[in-house]
Amino acid sequence: MVGFMPRAMRVDRLLGEHGIGQDSAAERQEFERQMERRRLQALAEEALKPLRRGWYLGSEQFKEQMLELMEGKLGGSHSGELHRETAEQRANRIIAEELARRGWQESELATRRRSDPGKLASAARLRSETTLPTKWIGARVQIGTAKGAKSLLHHLAQSQDQRKTASALEPCAQLEFQSTV
Fold first, then answer.
1. Any idea of the CA torsion for 135, 158, 100, 108, to the nearest 10 degrees?
2. Is the pLDDT of residue 153 over 70?
């Protein structure tokens, strides 16, 4: 045994767990090398990446299930990243619904014009039903840059407001005024 060690302190089991048979200076150095190797492996960037910044640990499918369960239940104490991921998942579901309703494939978003009425309607729905920025919506629905998407959505909202106003005033235009003189 190396140096003085109290009888109650047993190192033989610890060393034995690591495949070291005897308690000697050379064997302790081997134990030290093994521990250092394990420490370096644990510190590898890729190994710690999911734990550093993420809110979940598991497969992508598990993440999707958790996001579905959390939708609409997030409060102010939850991270902004979690809110964004939940909103993105909801947006992707809305886009899938819109594509199915129109009978389009995902690839058609790239081939259709930026001002395509279907694309604009999908973008407007995303804008009204999610908290995602216009930049994300423009890129996802492929209606152009953030500035262009904002402009297109603004013009779409204005034309819809004008139609609503005109339809609301329509009954008034049908009224006939009679002179009482």
1. -60
2. yes
